[in-house]
Automatic annotation (TrEMBL), chain A:
The keyword Membrane applies. Belongs to the UbiH/COQ6 family. FAD-dependent monooxygenase required for two non-consecutive steps during ubiquinone biosynthesis. Required for the C5-ring hydroxylation during ubiquinone biosynthesis by catalyzing the hydroxylation of 4-hydroxy-3-(all-trans-polyprenyl)benzoic acid to 3,4-dihydroxy-5-(all-trans-polyprenyl)benzoic acid. Also acts downstream of coq4, for the C1-hydroxylation during ubiquinone biosynthesis by catalyzing the hydroxylation of 2-methoxy-6-(all-trans-polyprenyl)phenol to 2-methoxy-6-(all-trans-polyprenyl)benzene-1,4-diol. The keyword Ribosomal protein does not apply. One of its GO terms (molecular function) is 2-methoxy-6-polyprenolphenol 4-hydroxylase activity. The gene is COQ6. Its main location: mitochondrion. Component of a multi-subunit COQ enzyme complex, composed of at least COQ3, COQ4, COQ5, COQ6, COQ7 and COQ9. One of its GO terms (cellular component) is extrinsic component of mitochondrial inner membrane. Keywords: FAD, Flavoprotein, Membrane, Mitochondrion, Mitochondrion inner membrane, Monooxygenase, Oxidoreductase, Ubiquinone, Ubiquinone biosynthesis. This is Ubiquinone biosynthesis monooxygenase COQ6, mitochondrial. It is found in: Mitochondrion inner membrane. Its cofactor is FAD.
UniProtKB/TrEMBL annotation, chain B:
CDD domains: AdoMet_MTases (cd02440). Keywords: Magnesium, Membrane, Metal-binding, Methyltransferase, Mitochondrion, Mitochondrion inner membrane, S-adenosyl-L-methionine, Transferase, Ubiquinone biosynthesis. Pathway: Cofactor biosynthesis; ubiquinone biosynthesis. This is Ubiquinone biosynthesis O-methyltransferase, mitochondrial. The lineage of its organism: Eukaryota, Fungi, Fungi incertae sedis, Mucoromycota, Mortierellomycotina. Signal peptide: none annotated. It is a peripheral membrane protein. It comes from Linnemannia schmuckeri. It is found in: Mitochondrion inner membrane. GO terms for biological process: methylation. Its cofactor is Mg(2+). S-adenosyl-L-methionine binds at R90, G134, D155, M206. The keyword Magnesium applies. The keyword Lyase does not apply. One of its GO terms (molecular function) is polyprenyldihydroxybenzoate methyltransferase activity. The gene is COQ3.
UniProtKB/TrEMBL annotation, chain C:
Pathway: Cofactor biosynthesis; ubiquinone biosynthesis. It is a peripheral membrane protein. GO terms for cellular component: extrinsic component of mitochondrial inner membrane. It catalyses: a 4-hydroxy-3-methoxy-5-(all-trans-polyprenyl)benzoate + H(+) = a 2-methoxy-6-(all-trans-polyprenyl)phenol + CO2. Component of a multi-subunit COQ enzyme complex, composed of at least COQ3, COQ4, COQ5, COQ6, COQ7 and COQ9. Keywords: Lyase, Membrane, Metal-binding, Mitochondrion, Mitochondrion inner membrane, Ubiquinone, Ubiquinone biosynthesis, Zinc. This is 4-hydroxy-3-methoxy-5-polyprenylbenzoate decarboxylase. Pfam families: Coq4.
Amino acid sequence: MSSLLARAARTGIRSPLSSRLHQPMAAIRFQSTEAKAAATTEEYDVVIVGGGIAGSALACALASNKASSTLKIALIEAFDLSNHIKWSPRPDQYSNRVSSLTPKSVAFLKKIGVWSELDESRVAACEGMQVWDGVSGARITFDAANVDGVQSSFLHQVFSGNVPNPSGVNNTTQETLGNSKEASPLAWMTENLHVQYGLQKQLVGHQARGVKLDVFEKTKVQGITTEQGEAAQLPQGDWPSVRLDNGKTLVTRLLVGADGVNSPVRSFAKIESLGWDYSQFGLVATLQIDPSTSTAPGQGKGIAWQRFLPTGPVAMLPLNNGYASLVWSTTPQIAQDLKKLPARDFCALVNAAFSASPAELEYLYKSIGPDGQPLIDFQKEIEWRTSVHDQEASQTMVRGNSFQGEAKPPRVVDVQENTRAPFPLRMRNSSSYVEDRVVLVGDAAHTVHPLAGQGLNQGLADVECLARVVETSLLSGSDIGNIHSLTPYSSERFLPNLAMLGTVDKLSKLYNTDFGPVVWARSLGLTAVDKMGPIKNEIMRFAMGLEESPNRP
Amino acid sequence: MASIGRITSRITRISSPHHLFRRNIPQPARFFCSTPRTLHTPSSSSSNSDKEDAIYTVNKEEIAKFAAMSDEWWAPQGPFKMLHLMNPPRIRYIRNRLQASGALSRNSAFGAEGEKEFPVGRFPLQGLSILDVGCGGGLLAEALARLGAKVTGLDASMENIQMARIHAKKDPLLNGVSAPGSLEYRHQTAEQLLEQGHQFDVVCSMEVIEHVENPAGFLKVLGQLVKPEGDLILSTISRTPLSYFLTIFAAEHVMRMVPVGTHHWSKYINPDELHKGVEELSKCEVLNIQGIGFNPLSGQWELTRSRDGSRCGSAEGGLLGLMGPPLAEASNYFLAAKKPAAATASVDTNSVSA
Amino acid sequence: MSARIFTRTNPSALKQCLARTGTNSTLARSTRAATAAPCASLFTFRSPLEAPTGKLYEGHIPISPLQRTILAVGSAFTALANPLRGDMVAALGETTSGIFLNRIRDQMLQDPEGRRILRERPVITSETMQLDTLRQLPDGTFGREYVRFLDDQQVSPDTREPVHFVDSEELAYVMQRYRETHDFYHTLTGLPVTVDGEIALKWFEMAQTGLPMTMLSSFFGPLRLSSEERKRLFNVYVPWALENGSTSKLLMNVRWEEWMEKPVEEVQRELGVRPCPQV
């Protein structure tokens, strides 16, 4: 027999989390005329680099599908993953990284069995949104009760190019929404750690029932290579080799980059990442609020508030039990100052961010000393300005569109310690999501401004699509790493992601200025759209990801 | 698509250094309805079975020599891109037909030792022996093998077989060890295989019949290669103005998706003609005819309308219902047939006129 | 509703005009019926025929956007014809400066002094300024020169036109403060109270605040000058005004009441203003 092929029993390297029910099957070991250290090279069908939410969700989805659960999967993560299962937070403490999950994402999480692992008390439903312009006060409100659940979003059909099936029924999200008699919330808010908890539990469960899923945690990728030229014709010659820092090398049929915005997998595939950095940082924090101070119906329970300031949008996302998550996009200097402010002044400033004029806020920003201590009495100044506003508001009778009579967000009373953290904001899109034997998902493929809460949802949509595409190509007998097997993923995800990125970017630029004519025009537009129910409906459905699942025979 | 190899080799014959390996000089093609022609028979000295072992052991020189051409077949954006794109619907069709005809459920009763260990969900074709006549570079054969079948690929072009073998070696799933599927390529004709007494559970011949010299004889041989109660699955192109427009004018001349000269319109076969041929010559019962079309918007091939059972016999639809095949089958289409249980057709090599 | 109404010093004419276009006038009622609510409110922030607020402060006359437009146009013509018509100049300023009063107020909010002024809202009248005390101050102090200026011109701080048409109490105060401090600007810069002196001062204010009314006066005012006066204006005064106006501290943030006892030169130095060249 040819010397090119050799058979040997594979010595399976087990991760601490796994337990096997049956012996691993014999596998082909890669050898070439140059001797390689045979014991440290392992062969996989899918190697996922990056164990964040996107990577772990992909591993989970592959392990849940009938055909792809027979694949040999590896998940590589530089940090600790097994810790997530031990996550047991206090009821009065919330992590500062909170994401809003659209109904589409939730439907996917339900499908892969993660949703049922989550603790309901730490998942808050968002039933409404109030978004307004910080300069002019023009406002738009969204209410979950008004969103139509059944027919697919026209915008999604246009952007994804799918031929809708004649009955117009949405398959996966339909399960979540029941039979559309009851309104689905606009989104669900929960901590990223919570979702990771659910994902890791599911992964362990899959390993327990025999799925060949190896998790390499606390392991970094040192390099990725592939053979060229003649060597590429040898068995597995064109398969990427991933070299880990623990000495092992993984050779894989399909390499998935779920490794974040500076993806090494993307660099290996020589895929360009195009985009720009916003001159903004996002500051997150966990806030304690006083719901009784909100003038919205129901004391503002389940309402997300977002105000567009010229420096960037400030948003308050509802959590349970009188807590809320803050996402404040602002200049790098202000973000750093906000982090250093004493808690009391920080809370006063957050309250002012939702009510005071941009000029007043400017003064407050300037009055923060280099060490983070305020140089004036924030409370006093803010109280004075608030009293002036309130007095004017009470005397103003604006007919039709009363800005001063609008709902107010709840007052912030405290900020949880050590939860204030700034991070840089940027927009990135890869020129391509797929290459031969390489595919990108999540932040490795695209990064977006957080103002619309879409980043994680786009990543989960990518993962759902990729898992489906892999399943389909397996059932067609294709090589799952072949570019023709991966192209359906790219066609389905590229355009919708680009559309979302573009829209969010334009919104960010539109609201980043206080130039008079622009403010007037955008306020006019916003007020007009607020009164046009069908258009608002479409926008919400686009943001919620309510769409057709592609109709493949 | 066996003759793709022949045609390209004809075109490149002078320039290519590989013509020295060619034994089989192709005859000019003629219209189907004319008197049966001789099937292309290779010269007796060309039996390559003694070469098989030598070919199996591919050494570095030959890798280098065939590397370039292998790239052509398997280059995803290369001249065979449309074939690559057509593969998933083909496989889906084959699986659906095998499911419908009961081949898969019978298969679960098969059980050579060790085969049951592989999950049926991933390897639905395990236990089946499949012959792909005119396998070309092995696009279809590899997919079938990955689904668990024992596939034999046949092609009359040596280069194609070499390419297919080299490519198959790259994927460990195809070596018959880590998965139930296996691949074997033979540089032979269908008649030679028949002479050796082989029969298969499933015989496929995709877009080959419009390239052969003697389609009638070809159908006879195919029928004999199918085991009783086995399946015969063919695909070809109808002879209609639409198919000329799509497959020759648009695909070859305008968009250059396939090399010019790949197809000859006069050799296309209509569904009703093929139906008749399969029933009478191959002695198989036609169960289903289904069209397939390329959707330029999605960039994918999509299966169109399907006709089952008794409706296959009639040449319905077409231009004003009077003539020609229905629109769904006006270009590329599949035909699935099943051989009856009673072994009425014995392996009869003498019926093939020399 | 022609400009003719305004060329005569006739306060009642203004009231007639307002009555004819007011909320309950026939014009308003018929227009209201014609433009049904959805249409009107869809693309405007407020109805053009309703005054947006009630009476917010002493002297406030709430007017609708339609009335505001009419008043702005009318007073512009009148003020151009006769710049000494103080009430028309005032009306023009109030009807056109809505957005930019906001800007001045925001600029004041950026400065601790300005904030103090907004919070305490000092008014300048002959009583609060204690003119008699100022007359006792030594020559060369800001207060003494200020009173000398007032006596020469035979005006007093009480003759300023009160604010009528600004729909916000705080902004009305800003407008009032702006007017009240006008005399201090003369004292500070040394500009005479002639037509070209006033225009030069308007250029100075334009460089400081960007108020549209200052721009109107700056660009249309010189049309009424003789060519010699215009030459002097553009060769001497305007360059000085632009240079000093843009580099000096924002004068709206100055608590003039506290600078009375300082010498004029010191005040000028601290505020970054060179005295105007005397021609």
